[in-house]
C-alpha cells in the first residue's frame, strides 16, 4: 500500500462525512455543481484505480455517489415545482 493512498483516502472520507448534512437536508447545491463534481470524481475513481490506489478509488466513488445523489435530489426538487 502506498502512503499516498492513505492520504487520499483520509481526505476523501472527511469530504464524504462533511456531505452527509447536505444529502439529508432540504437545501441542495445547484444541479450543475452537484452533477459536474460527481462526474469529475468518477473520473478520479478510475484514475486512482489505474494507479492501484484501491482505497482511494473506493472512497472517491463513495463521495462521487453522494454528489450524484444530491444532483438527483435537486433535479427532483426542480421537477416538483
Report on the structure:
The protein is mostly helical. It has a domain of 45 residues. Helix content is 85%, strand content 0%. Helix 1 packs parallel to helix 3 and helix 2 runs antiparallel to helix 3. It is elongated and about 50 Å long. The model has no long low-confidence stretch (mean pLDDT 95).
Task: Sum up the structure in keywords.
81 residues; mainly alpha; 3 helices; 0% strand
Brief summary:
The protein is mainly alpha-helical and 81 residues long. Helices cover 85% and strands 0% of the residues. It has helices at 3-24, 31-50, 54-80.
Supply Rg: 14 Å
Order of helices and strands: HHH
Q: What is the total tally of β strands?
A: 0
Q: Terminal Cα separation, in Å?
A: 49 Å
Estimate the global geometry from the Cα principal axes: elongated
Structural class of the secondary elements? mainly alpha
- Count, helices: 3
Structural topology:
Layout: H1 3-24, H2 31-50, H3 54-80
Amino acid at each position: 500500500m502506498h502512503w499516498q493512498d492513505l492520504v487520499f483516502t483520509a481526505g476523501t472520507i472527511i469530504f464524504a462525512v462533511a456531505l452527509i448534512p447536505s444529502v439529508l437536508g432540504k437545501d441542495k447545491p445547484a444541479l450543475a455543481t452537484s452533477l459536474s463534481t460527481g462526474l469529475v470524481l468518477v473520473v478520479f475513481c478510475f484514475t486512482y484505480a489505474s494507479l492501484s490506489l484501491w482505497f482511494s478509488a473506493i472512497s472517491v466513488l463513495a463521495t462521487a455517489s453522494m454528489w450524484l445523489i444530491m444532483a438527483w435530489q435537486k433535479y427532483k426538487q426542480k421537477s416538483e415545482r
